Amino acid sequence: MTRSAARGVKIHDLEHSYDEDPVLHGVSLDVATGESLALLGPSGCGKTTLLRLIAGLERPSSGSITIGDDLVAGDTWVPPDRRRVGMVFQDWALFPHLSVAKNVAYGITKSSTRDAEVAAALEMMDLAELADRMPATLSGGQQQRVALARALAPRPGVLLLDEPFSNLDTSLRIEVRTEVHRLLADLGITSIFVTHDQDEAFIVGDRVAVMRQGEIVQTDSPQVLYHHPVDQWTAEFVGTVSVLQGEASSGTARCSLGSVAVDPQLDGSVDVVVRPEQLSIAAGGDGEVQSIEYYGHDSMIFVTLGNDQLRVRCGPSTNFVRGDQVHVTFNSDRALAFKSE
Q1: Cα 63 to Cα 12: distance, rounded to the nearest angstrom
Q2: Prediction pTM value
């Protein structure tokens, strides 16, 4: 299948409400042509509403949406079927009475090349041998591929995905999202992907837009978002942390770990936010191991130190057990810290 004629998406000062209940507040976003953007946020923050507005399934209360060079919402209104936007829904929304091939063909305009376009979409998603099967006879992973093939077959300029992997089991979800990430990159298609899972957002998104209560609080690459979050809520949402009470002065903060380097502009009471990989652990000390979580590729050790609980990431092999006395050390250049509220 050839690369799609991708188009960028620009959203300016978007507002939306349901029955006078505000859902989106001044949302602005610029998605570059060919970029994969992940919308990350907790349930109810407005992610799916934003996706539906881009698709044309809802009309915004105010603000504008531009796809490519076309204003599709604002001073004018372009219906969904004229936006060249594909959408993969959370439940995949396959037609149960249509075969795989007919599901994929549904969104393609009738023409002499229609059968070839369907065949190309099926081949791309490794579904060629399942063309005559009905959706009910397919596995969850196969149904997800059919939904994606149907969305891509008309060669949309923008592809929208609303938590498309949430109905898959863990191992299959990891496999499919990796395949989808590779496919979107190969096709060069502009995509906007909704998820509440940080791992998915970081894997699929070239950039990640974090949403909270109808607003976008930060849009950055996964690396910048993880290491330089704009506020404490974002720091805690995009990864595992330990939050310690501290007192900052002249670029250091005193906390249960001792003195750690922080932003020199901070002064007074602060919350020191530490990632598990910024800590190391050794036998003997004032900390006590409370529990250990083993993941195969590494382990997470939970340590109580005074009034604080620390999370320490270690390798897959650890000799510590519950009740051990341990010493925890901060091993990074600088810790995140935010003014205490």
Answers
A1: 6
A2: 0.89
